[in-house]
UniProtKB/TrEMBL annotation:
Upper lineage: Bacteria, Pseudomonadati, Pseudomonadota, Alphaproteobacteria, Acetobacterales
UniProt cofactor note: Binds 2 [4Fe-4S] clusters. One cluster is coordinated with 3 cysteines and an exchangeable S-adenosyl-L-methionine.
Name of the protein: tRNA-2-methylthio-N(6)-dimethylallyladenosine synthase
Catalytic activity reported: 2-thio-N(6)-dimethylallyladenosine(37) in tRNA + S-adenosyl-L-methionine = 2-methylsulfanyl-N(6)-dimethylallyladenosine(37) in tRNA + S-adenosyl-L-homocysteine + H(+); N(6)-dimethylallyladenosine(37) in tRNA + (sulfur carrier)-SH + AH2 + 2 S-adenosyl-L-methionine = 2-methylsulfanyl-N(6)-dimethylallyladenosine(37) in tRNA + (sulfur carrier)-H + 5'-deoxyadenosine + L-methionine + A + S-adenosyl-L-homocysteine + 2 H(+); N(6)-dimethylallyladenosine(37) in tRNA + (sulfur carrier)-SH + AH2 + S-adenosyl-L-methionine = 2-thio-N(6)-dimethylallyladenosine(37) in tRNA + (sulfur carrier)-H + 5'-deoxyadenosine + L-methionine + A + H(+)
Keyword S-adenosyl-L-methionine: yes
Family annotation (InterPro entries): Elp3/MiaA/NifB-like_rSAM, Methylthiotransferase, Methylthiotransferase_CS, Methylthiotransferase_N, Methylthiotransferase_N_sf, MiaB_methiolase, rSAM, rSAM_horseshoe
GO MF entry, a single one: 4 iron, 4 sulfur cluster binding
Chain sites annotated for binding [4Fe-4S] cluster 1: 74, 110, 148
Organism: Muricoccus roseus
Domain Radical SAM core: 209-441
Amino acid sequence: MRRPSRGRAFLDLEGPAPHIPPARVPPQKAAGPRNERVFLRMSSSTGPYPAGPAPAEGVAPKPARKLLIRTWGCQMNVYDSGRMADILAPLGYAPTESAEEADMVILNTCHIREKASEKVFSDLGRLRETKKARAAEGRQTVIAVAGCVAQAEGAEITARAPWVDIVLGPQTYHRLPEMVARASRAAGAVIETDFPAEDKFDHLPEARAPQGPVAFLTIQEGCDKFCSFCVVPYTRGAEFSRPAAAILAEARQLAANGAREIALLGQNVNAWAGASPDGHTWRLARLLRELAEIPGVARLRYTTSHPRDMDDDLISAHGEIPSLMPYLHLPVQSGSDKVLAAMNRGHKAELYIRLADRLREARPDLALTSDFIVGHPGETSADFEATMRLVERIGFAGAYSFKYSARPGTPAASQPGPVAEAEKDVRLQALQAVLRRQQDDFNRACVGRVVDVLVTGTGRHPGQVAGRSPWLQPVHATGAAPVGAVVSMQLRAALPNSLSATMAHEESAAA
Ligand code: SF4
């Protein structure tokens, strides 16, 4: 399937998040209302990534070089960082966590959070000093800025930070080896922020990174929805679905590398419509059914979805595919039809409520989570009350909630009726209080249940294992079990950031 033509924009973008959950959440310091997730969820990180494969016998190994990738933003950026490590491994780049020993540093950026660009430039300021110190010792350092800030800012980055060698957008990182070669030859920086006609995914190496028991797999990129407040259609381009055969091959590889849970990623993941091996177009439900057949894959998830793309088959799939976890992140943003129209969301509150009911009919234990923006231009108190009614009507297991803040260049930035900051604070506080209560209720309702927990590592205390429940809650239990095992545990208590459990019985990791 050809990639649709992609738009490009140079925006100075700041404001609320679109509906891809962030991969990392900084520690909260201040009390009071703030843009936050009200979630009991494990954070994730890029984690260590491996060096490339051992050179073939008789082939001289490449000189060891060190690569540091810093990742901000959503799980899709985490996935992209892993793939960049895969691409650079054959050039001899091995991972490091230290800027001082890194021969190459990649900042994989996100343009969702407020002041995203400024944070990147302050990191670049520190890297300039590191680069100078290394140069004084005769060591070269390649600095690259990737991701959505790179896409949005383009040449502005090297104008402000001329020590940057490479600027690359999310659609061009498969060309990294060529860019590294050009950067080491060229006097100036290499800037690649086009949306190339060739499919990036066709040019990526097989995923080699041992991603552990939980793996992310991007199946869809871009967005055609153009919500009033969101930058994604400008930075990631039009919706594009990877072909089913490529996704299935990558999933098999991930399973062979030890993945037990695969999370499918996309800005609008349930808009996925990919070419199938039999020449037809499959939708997400069919893809999930095929993925569920792969030996070793015990759990499937997908994120993030749009209400407009929840088709009947996908709703049914939640009741029919045992390995599809009872968890769905489905952003609604507002409960007011007037605000939803101003946001250009393309659906009404009633549609969302109907979807929630149907999903729960299909899978009664489904944990539904969402995103909210309060204080969108034109939102009145009555509109906000409609959001509160929707929240009470649905009952969420968690949510991300944000105050609206304008990003120049997006339609909402010029819409009339801005809401005063103080009023946004009051509304956010009220919303978060309800969402927090609902989350606590959900977690407490889990206590006493015996559930399958995927073991992901050791716990905080000696003799503990850590894992995740079917509803994506972090779980800690005393006992031993190998990473990757799916273990039956009884949930004993809901703690502030996790559930505690005791082992019921173990299932072999090799099941
Ligand atoms: S649907 Fe598209 S435009 Fe709307 S919030 Fe999600 S990514 Fe942004």
